[in-house]
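Quick question, first post here. What does this chain look like in 3D?
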Amino acid sequence: MKPILASLAATAALFASSGPQAQTMRPFLDFKTADAIRDHCLANAGKAGHSVAVAVFDDGGDLASYSNHGASPAAAAVAQWKGRSAAVYRRSTRETAAWNAPTAPMMATMEGGVPLFARDGTPIGGVGVSGASSEFDAECGTRAAEAAGLRVSRPEPGSE
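> Answer (accepted):
Ran it through. C-alpha cells below.
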C-alpha cells in the first residue's frame, strides 16, 4: 500500500509542478463562416442566373459546408474536387491546373477552387464552385470568401 501511495504522491507532484501551459489559438474555419461563404456564393450565382454547387473545406480537406442548389450531380462532384484541392494545396485550382500534374492526389486541374486564408495569412481551407463557367465559378468563390472577411491568397511578406 505504501509503494502505491508513494507513486501517487510522486505523480501528483510531477503534474502539480508543471503548471498550466499557454496555448496559442490558430485561426480556423468555423461552420458559421463556411455556411456564410456557401450562401453568399449561391446568392451571387442566382442573381447571375446560374445554378451552382458550392463546397467549402477546412484546412485538413474535410467538408465544412455544401449545397447543390439546382446544379447537376456532376457539378456537385466537381465543386468538391475543386474545393478540397484548393484547401490542401493552398493554391487556386487555376494555379494547380498550370502545374500539369493531373495524377497528383486530390489536385484539381480546372479553375473554380480558391484557397481560404485568415486576414493574417494563416491557411484555413478552400472553396470550390461548379455549374457555371470556370471563370464565374472562381469569381463566385473569391467574392464569397472576401465577403466573409477572408483572403484568397497569402499576403506578400512585409505588406502588412
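The mean pLDDT is 91.
Residues 46 and 55 are 16 Å apart (CA to CA).
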